[in-house]
From TrEMBL:
Any GO BP annotation: diaminopimelate biosynthetic process
Group of enzyme by EC: transferase
CDD domains: ACT_AKiii-YclM-BS_2
Family indicated by similarity: Belongs to the aspartokinase family.
GO CC annotations on file: cytosol
Binding site for substrate: 49, 114
Name this protein carries in UniProt: Aspartokinase
Amino acid sequence: VKVTKFGGSSLASAEQILKMKQIVEADEARKFVVPSAPGKRFKDDVKVTDLLYSLHDAAAHFEETDGIYGQIVRRYTDIRDELGLSIKIEEYLEKMYRDIKTGANEDYAASRGEYLNGLLIADLLGYDFIDAADVIFFDETGSYDAKKTLSVLPGALKLHERAVIPGFYGSLPNGRIKTFSRGGSDITGSIVSRAANADLYENWTDVSGFMMADPRIVENPRKIDVVTYRELRELAYMGATVLHEDSIFPVLEAAIPINVKNTNDPENSGTMIIPAIEGRDGARDGITGIAGKKNFTVITIEKDGMNTEIGFGRKVLTCLEKFGLSFEHMPSSIDTISIVVADIRIRHCIEELIDEIHAVCQPDSVEVSSNMAIIATVGRGMIRQVGVSAKLFAALAQSHVNVRMIDQGSSEINIIVGVENDDFEKAVQAIYSALV
Ligand code: ADP
Ligand code: MG
């Protein structure tokens, strides 16, 4: 059995959806299909999910909603009509509109993108439709409930020879809809793969797999043919958003491989994501990939002898906790600790936080830099190779990139550097040219 998840750009229009159909029908084993909501059809187009968030927001503020609603209706009726289907999608749209106007929660609104697309796709393929709200569950705290889901979903799948299960959402114990974070249809695909005990989880998107760097930053980056779950998670979390970083968890135990494939180039073998690279551990030459993201604040706390001060780290963490902050990274050396937090999460409380650190930790100095980008260079083979980091820093210096933070050695599979937002693209390009 293969589970196939299709991303938003793969299902953005009737034309793309027909490519999906061809792919699904080319292999008998593709029994379960997990669709995303229709994405962008062209560069400045708007994703249906974003329209739905706007619609909910406008309704919540009693603003004009008919315009946005009309755009959403058109996206689905265009697809339906161009595919020549007779399903009365208007009825489902109208119910959604009524619900949103009478106070349905934001997650419900957002989830309709996948739900409605799933109805159309099931109709087109002649597959059964399974509402994810009936088979994927979250607990009271809003976390994915694997135990409950795996007690229901496998049985539900057995009742269907072939089925479409929309991505991105499930339901809470009180029956309300809850979504995963953005890009979460990747997680649904992984959950369905686990429940179906699939041989393979295919994740179809608009690139031929994971590249060694973001193709929007580096021209024609080399493809990664095989990558481990851990490397994938590291790259995804650090900004290579081809696959949601949490997608590996549901399939981890069952060790189901994930194959990222291109809907527009189905012959391409794409990238295989597997538990571990047997027999060739560390044998990969050089690095696996580079990923990064912008808009972080780095707080550097300096205090001579902090390494021998019992409880210093705890004091720093207590300060963060007081403001409800978790950190992205926390590199440290003998006399300094740096804390990396997303700009948007720290902006409102940065001054109070610095005051708190001064009061509680008694540091020699505290330095704050915002608008920073963090870049991870990832690879399991890296540690055994001499000179990778020397080459990386030489390349950054040569491109006149000012390195403001370094985190090396805390994890054996990556080197993280902090640079100014404006230097981000230049830095990624420099690292790529030096190490690939
Ligand atoms: P989908 O809608 O199919 O889920 P996404 O937009 O979530 O697709 O992910 C695919 C996109 O990820 C690509 O179009 C590409 O722009 C971006 N991307 C970022 N980093 C990488 C990378 N290292 N390799 C490939 N694509 C990447
Ligand atoms: Mg995605």
